Amino acid sequence: MSKTNESLMQRRTAAVPRGVGQIHPIFADHAENATVTDVEGREFIDFAGGIAVLNTGHLHPKIIAAVQQQLTKLTHTCFQVLAYEPYVELCEKVNAKVPGDFAKKTLLVTTGSEAVENSIKIARAATGRTGVIAFTGAYHGRTMMTLGLTGKVVPYSAGMGLMPGGIFRAQYPCALHGVSTDDAIASIERIFKNDAEPKDIAAIIIEPVQGEGGFYVAPKDFMQRLRALCDQHGILLIADEVQTGAGRTGTFFAMEQMGVAADLTTFAKSIAGGFPVAGVCGKAEYMDAIAPGGLGGTYAGSPIACAAALAVMQVFEEEKLLDRCKAVGERLVTGLKAIQAKHNAVGEVRALGAMIAMELCEGGDVHKPNAALTGQIVAKARDKGLILLSCGTYGNVLRVLVPLTAEDALLDRGLAIIAECFDELA
Asked: Are 93 and 313 in contact (CB under 8 A)?
C-alpha cells in the first residue's frame, strides 16, 4: 500500500507526543533547492526553509559533496577526545566574520538552544554575575534556561511551572506598537531601579531581528544605546543571531548593520545548510573565562556538520549570496506591498534583507491582531502548493524565509499564490 500523508499522520499521532507540533499535515519525501515533494508526489514551493535553516537551499550540490567527502574520513570522535581540523577551521572563519574589532574565539555546539545556554554560562563566568535581561517577544530556545529567556509562555513553557530565576524582561522597541527607543531603554533602567542592580546583571541578550516574536527589527540607535549602557555597567551584550545569521538579513550577521558589535554572538540554523551545528563566538578573554571541561558536548561541532558549514561559507562567497539576499528581499517586499495596497488586513510589510514579514490586523487597525486570517492564509497557501509559516506574539504575522538560491520565477509564483489567498480570504 502506498504511503499517504493521512496514513503517516495517524502513525505519527500514535507514536509521537502531542507536544511536538506540526504546522502542515504533510510528510516530505524529497526536496531540491526551494521545492519540496511530499510522499504523495505533490510539489510545494518552500517559503519556510526549515525555519531559516536552508538559506543555501535544499541539497546544495557543493554542501552535499563536502559531506560525502567527510563521510569517507570520519563521522565522530568527540572533539574533546580527538580533535579534527574542520572544527578549528570553522571557528577561524566564524571569528573572522562575526562583527567586532577584537580577538575572538568560538565554541561549537549542536543546537541554537545549546548556543544560547552556553552564552549565558560564559557571561556568568566572565563577569562573576548571574542576572540576565531579555526582551518582550524574545525567542531563545526550549531548554529550561532559554525558556526563561523566551518571552512567550504559550505554547513553549505552558504547564511546566516557573522557569529559572534571575531573568528580567525589558521592552523590545517597536514603533508600530508604540514602543520607542526611549521607552525600551527606560524599561531597562526600571529593572535597575526595581529588580536588580546593574552589578548583578551578567548579560543583556537580544535578537537584532526578532524571530518568533514577529520579525521586528531593532532600531540602530537603540542598539547603539544598548551597547553604551552595557559598557557603562560592565554588562555583556549577547546578540542571538541563530535566525538572523548566515546571511538571512543581507549581511552574514545582522549586527553588521547595527553599528555596534556584541560581546558574544550565538549562531546556528543556516550556518551548515541543514546539518546541526551551532556556536558562540565572542571576545577571547570572555570565551576563556571557563576552565577546560566546562564547555563542550559529545556531538558538539560534529565533523559532518563542520564540513557542511565550511561549504556553506564557500557557497556564499562563490555565488554572491549576500547580494542575492538583497535582491530576493527587494523582489518579495515589492510583491507583498502590492498586496498590502489592495488589502487593509495587511498592517505592515517589513524586512531586513530576506527576513520578511507581513503583519495582519482587523480593518487596518494594527492594534487588533488577526490571527484567524493568518492561519487561514497559511492553510489556503498550502492547498495551492506554497509552504508558509506564521509567528508573532499574537500569531498574526506571516513570515517568509525562502532559500536565497530560489529562482525569480519561483519567487513570483509564491507571491502570486499569496495574492490569490488574500483575494479569496481577506
From this structure: yes
Give the DSSP H/E element, type plus range, for residue 96: helix 85-97
The 3-state DSSP class for residue 201 equals: strand
Residue in this structure with the C-alpha cell 504559550, named with its chain if needed: 154
The predicted-structure confidence for 281-308, as pLDDT tens digits, reads as follows 999 999 999 999 999 999 999 999 999 9
Average pLDDT in the chain? 97
Q: Whole-angstrom Cα distance, residue 87 to residue 224?
A: 33
Helix axes 321-342, 303-318, angle to 10 degrees: 80
**Same domain (yes/no): 146, 161:** yes
Does a structural domain hold residue 65? no
The verdict on 311 and 340 lying in the same domain is no
DSSP 243: T
> Is residue 64 included in any domain, yes or no?
no
Return the closest-CA partner of residue 123 out of 225, 278, 268, 266.
266
161 and 208 together in one domain: yes
Retrieve residue 124's grid coordinates.
Answer: 556568568
Q: Are residues 188 and 279 in the same domain?
A: yes
b/e burial code for range 128-164 (CB count within 10 A of at least 16 → b): ebbbbbbbbbbbbbebebbbbbbbbeeebbeeeeebe
Q: What is the pLDDT of residues 100-114, one digit of tens each?
A: 999 999 999 999 999
Q: Report yes or no: 135 and 171 within 8 Å, Cβ to Cβ.
A: yes
Residue 185 C-alpha cell reads as: 531603554
Q: Are residues 142 and 254 in the same domain?
A: yes
End-to-end Cα distance, the chain = 40
Q: Residue 299's closest CA among 33, 108, 20, 126?
A: 108
User: pTM above the 0.85 mark?
Assistant: yes
CA 240/CA 120 separation, integer angstroms: 11
Angle made by CA atoms 129, 130, 133, in degrees to the nearest 5: 110
Contact (CB, 8 A) for 259 and 72: no
Q: What is the mean pLDDT of residues 351-363?
A: 97
The answer as to whether 186 is a domain residue is: yes
CATH number at residue 109: 3.40.640.10
Pairwise CA distance, residues 198 & 387, whole Å: 45
* Beta strands, E only, 49-115: 104-109
Residue 189 to residue 377: CA distance in whole angstroms = 40
Cα separation, 58 vs 35, whole angstroms? 8
Domain that holds residue 206: 74-318
Number of domains in the chain: 2
Position 199 pLDDT exceeds 80: yes
Is the pLDDT at 1 greater than 80? The verdict is no
